[in-house]
Design a protein that fits this description.
Blueprint (H helix, E strand, L loop, with lengths): L59 H59 L1
Length: about 120
């Protein structure tokens, strides 16, 4: 209770994987103490996995199926992360394009005003 499991400092991106030691309720706490000016975006995936102990009587096919299932889950997590990251970058690009558009309109209006003033 109240123990930090993972701590990242001065990183623009990062990943962490935590395996719960006991059953129960866990809290996720995030802090932005290093940079209170800039907002931070945090995304995470939580998986509830039932662990079945590997025993020596398990068929090799079943072991391979479990390994493939874990790999597939890792691929799905990475795809979800890429989708979120692409959305954030697209929103940034659209915001920048809108600012450029308004700046261009203001410059054009000022240019026409200067032309009209000189005539």
């Amino acid at each position: 209770m109240g123990i930090a499991q993972v701590k990242h400092s001065k990183q623009s991106t990062g990943t962490a994987e935590i395996t719960a030691k006991r059953d129960g309720r866990y809290e996720y706490c995030f802090s932005n103490v290093m940079s209170t000016i800039a907002d931070k975006v945090v995304s995470f995936n939580v998986h509830g996995v039932m662990y079945v102990a590997d025993d020596e009587h398990m068929a090799p096919v079943e072991k391979e199926i479990r390994r493939l299932a874990q790999g597939l889950q890792a691929v799905k997590d990475e795809q979800e992360y890429i989708v979120v990251r692409e959305r954030v970058h697209r929103n940034t690009a659209e915001s920048s394009n809108e600012r450029v558009m308004w700046w261009s309109i203001i410059q054009a209006v000022l240019l026409f005003m200067v032309c009209a003033w000189q005539v």
